[in-house]
Amino acid sequence: MKFSDIKMFQMTRWLLLSSITVALGSSFLYGYNVAKLNTPTQMIQDFFNESYTKRYGSPLSKSRLNILWSFTVTIFVATGAVGSFICGWIADKIGRKRSLVLNNFLAIVGGLLEAASKPLMIPELIMMGRFIIGLNCGLTLGLATIFLTEISPQSIRGAVANFHQVGVVFGILAAQVMGLDSLLGTEKNWNYLLGFTIIPPILSCFILPFCPESPRYLMLSKNDEKAARLNMEKYHQKNSPELEEAITDMQKEYFASTDAIGKFQYTQLFRARKLRMALLVGISLMICQQWSGINAIFAYSESLFTQAGVKKSNIQYVIVGTGLVNVLITFVNLPLMDKAGRRSLLLYPSMVMIICMLLMIPSIGYQHKFPWLSHLSIVLMLFYIVGFALGLGPIPCMLPSETFRQGPRGAAVGIVQAFHWAMNMIVTFSFRFMEESIGEYLFIIFAIICTLSLIFVLLFLPETNGRSLDDIVMDFKRGYLWIPFRKKPYYIYANEVIAANKALYQTGGANVTLEIE
Question: pTM, whole model, 2 decimals?
Fold first, then answer.
């Protein structure tokens, strides 16, 4: 098979430019800012102590230092949740592309505040920077996935949307590499590590304004069919049947939609049955992702490498290696996303993750008796990371953009991404308590929650790969239910939809599908 035969490698120049710009100029910032404090934690805490000692004449007590550091970490997550919750409203008000451009300025301001904290000896600037960057990252999680989903051709929508996850994992790897002792992870340079945040958004501000706006936003939200068609042609191969199909589908959604585009209320997501189920599937995926044990795996990584005989001075380089594995598998997953489908990539890699977590329990628990088990634990950890990078890493963020029409899409993505931050905070604060209480047996909790969430998702999530957004929404309206060993999907409310359409036809209505709430 030639590279040119793979649909992903048939991306237009505008599509490739827009995808890379969003991945490296926006999504990258989320991954980088999540990971960049891991290395200089102790150095920044020492800076807090030194600054307050010079200011007040006495050092901080241990409890007060812990409170200040906890606030610095927590404020990033709190404002991230706020940013995600309002991302849909902002995207609908001023547009997808313009929202991403303006969001870059938040990252620039936040990064400058963090970088300036050390020379000015003002630790509060780090807190202010984390406050602003948290808002930026929260907005990014929603805006990037919405924009990438809406500009992508149907046949490669998974690959294009997955550019977001490529940017995230590349950001994490960049933070790990730049945080090395030989680079910026030193007492002298840690503020430059924090300040590097400003570089990607500055570059994005010079490129993203020239990228075409989302055609679906122009057509369905701004009623500008001419501009929408022009941009659609830039994001699709010229004279391809898929281009005309995409324009036709967009026109059908415009004339048939009853979702009050531009005036959609968040409460409607919970009142309408078809929207409520799609929302619950998205929330369940976020719960599954955050409770999948990924934080525990990385928390145990250092001790696993130590037990395996890796020198303490070399552990940071080995951890960078795990980050590199994550990046490589995410790149491999780009063409695979539209080849294997979302359900398969959720099911099989997650099964590998669950098995790895269950095997990690005896492997970690008995490695003091059998030293060779430490090597097995590392192998299990790597298999787990591969499974996460294939399924639960990228799919929960991109799926909400695929399962809603234009009207509710922004609000739905905002709520689901807000759950991402909420679950992240709960897992972060409960992890140390669980680890101290039950040790490696906490993997049982992660495995159970992951299994239950995954079962719910597989029962009610239709395959989205290679299908139009309207077809996916119709499956939720008809009450999609997966039944094992049944070749065709079962629809709980199919008879209601058929009856409603018959009634509409008999009354002389247009050939559109009546909304069943």
Answer: 0.88
